[in-house]
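Late entry, evening session. Most of the bench is empty. Finally got around to the prediction I had been postponing all week. Sequence below, unchanged from the version circulated by S.P.
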Amino acid sequence: MTNTSNLLKLLKKNQLSLTRPRRLVFELLGNSKEPLSIQEITLPLGNMIDRASVYRTIDLFEKLEIVKKVYVGFKYKIELGEIFQPHHHHVYCTKCGKTFGFEEPKFIDEYIDKLGKEFEVEITSHNFELEGICRNCNKIS
């Protein structure tokens, strides 16, 4: 479970309060093992907070870098940002949309540093997402 005290500190720093919708969305994302679609966020919270509050919360959280979007094809899912979890990347299934996280191997990080030096660019961020067909979807095909 993710620590809500860090969320509380970040919100207070930005002169915001920890409302019920913010706490519920944060806890749902913190308890998830993979990124969630908006639908996967709104459905379990549907009887506790309205859909508009979920969207407003996600929008605010994205601005504060509490969450980030993980692009899956032309759609996206939401997960907690690097303030609340280690830097990682994703592999997703193009058939069922299941998303798997993986930590970045050291050699990739070293290669990114090398590219930054080669092109004389200070690399401040990067994305590395892979797509394919998962084992379960391959069995169905």
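Two things to note before I forget:
The longest strand covers residues 67-72.
The chain has two domains: 1-82, 86-141.
Will write this up properly tomorrow.
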